[in-house]
Amino acid sequence: MRILALDHGTKRIGVATSDELRMMAHPLEYIDAEPFAGVLDRIRVLVREKEVGQIIVGMPRRMDGSYGEAAARTKEFVNVLREAIPLPIRTWDERLTSVAANRALNEGGVKRGDRKERVDAMAAAILLQSYLDSLGPE
Q: Is the full-model pTM beyond 0.90?
């Protein structure tokens, strides 16, 4: 079973998925955060199509490790997600994933205007790869 990662934002939600062996993360797409019913519908479709067994949601933290307003919004999102989708859902520290995503896209030669379309999915993939790496070999 694959793992789906969500990088929750106020405008867009980045989406990434693991391979079946849960070794590699791959950026998938982004979902517009509004309307919210559309977000849940799209996540349900992805769960079914990609045969997802677990969802990881990036939890924003400040550099000192504390939680702020963005974390409170993400917790609300996770609570709604848990009600809507009957899968194990956990949060994972997402500090600096957007910075790393922008850097990777820049180094990959993606033009600034095109990065906006890709950065959220890439941030979700970086988040997911961090989680997969923490699991170690099975």
A: no
